[in-house]
Amino acid sequence: MRPRPVRHLLAGMTSALVLVSGCTAAYDPTPVPSATTTTTSTPTATASSTPAACQNATTSYAPASLASQADDPTIRAIRARGYLRVGVSADTLLFGARNPLTGGIEGFDIDLARAVADYLLGDPTKVQLVVITAADRIPALKDGRVDMVARNMTMTCDRWKEIAFSAEYYRAGQKVLVTKGATAVRLEELAGKRVCAPTGTSSLTKLRTYAGVVAVPAATHTGCLVLLQQGKIDAITGDDTVLAGLAAQDPYAVVTTAAAVTAEPYGLGFKADAVGLVRAVNGLLDAMKSDGRWTQIYTRWLAGPLGPAPKPPASVYGR
């Protein structure tokens, strides 16, 4: 394989803790239409008998109309303040990343945050984006820095012990990124090939269970991409959300269409006692899943690297 020049990756993506006012940051008002209904019908919801002990981490609180939750103290506090505070990433391309040209933060999670602000306050710009690290997602909720976290956070039973989650809004999973034209597209087909994953990740642990695959660790996924561009590895593995961001930076790379080897359900995070807010947001999410807004957001950010939008993940209730 002939090494190809390393292209410059998108600049300006750091994990520094900063605040970005949604009222002043660059904002494109067109991608997510304002809600035209406050319906709480749940055509995608499935019944669940899962007890509160959490046998299924995707089980959330049943949706309710925003009007019925008007006296919820968390919602009243947000409305009195005049804006929603949301913990986000600024360096996860396509989900939450700073645009180096505009300085604004954009992506799938950001569009969801703006949709929630629009639902609660009638204006998608009434949101303050608080850039946090992955490790700071739960602390930022518990100490009140943010009202909600929209930062590609996997729903787990352990996390339910500390915070609350919305219904699942995205189903991620570990996949493979290769150079266009590659014939081996699944991990089980890569015996004898060099496959990269970041050190200390579950992706690297899973990679090492495949016999014959040469696992190549790197400090970050970006480091893996550089190795791929230099011809020193044959593939990269990780969550499809991360791989989609890498593919968007490299026209010679593609995320394979093979089925994911793990399941990573993403949920919006809230304080454990913000049940009324969770119920209201679940009503919004169900409406977005059924009226096409979820598909529109997916298509805008993820259809290019990951293919056409799948069916939105089903909402599971019973907590």
Summed up, what is this model?
With 319 residues, the protein is of the alpha/beta class.
Cα-atom Rg, whole angstroms? 20 Å
Query: pLDDT under 50 segments (min length 5)?
Result: 5-51
Ends: how far apart? 53 Å
Biggest β-sheet strands, sense, barrel:
5 strands, mixed
| Total beta-strand segments | 16
What form results from the Cα inertia axes? Answer: elongated
* CATH-level-4 superfamily name of the largest domain: Periplasmic binding protein-like II
Strands of the biggest beta sheet: in what spatial order? 12-11-13-10-14
How many helical stretches? 10
Structural class: alpha/beta
CATH architecture identity of the largest domain: 3-Layer(aba) Sandwich
- The percentage helix is 25-40%
What order do the helices and strands follow?
EEHEEEEHEHEHEEEHEHEHEEHHHE
CATH class identity of the largest domain: Alpha Beta
Could you tell me the strand content as a percent range? 15-25%
Mean pLDDT: 85
CATH-derived topology of the largest domain: D-Maltodextrin-Binding Protein, domain 2
Tally the structural domains: 2
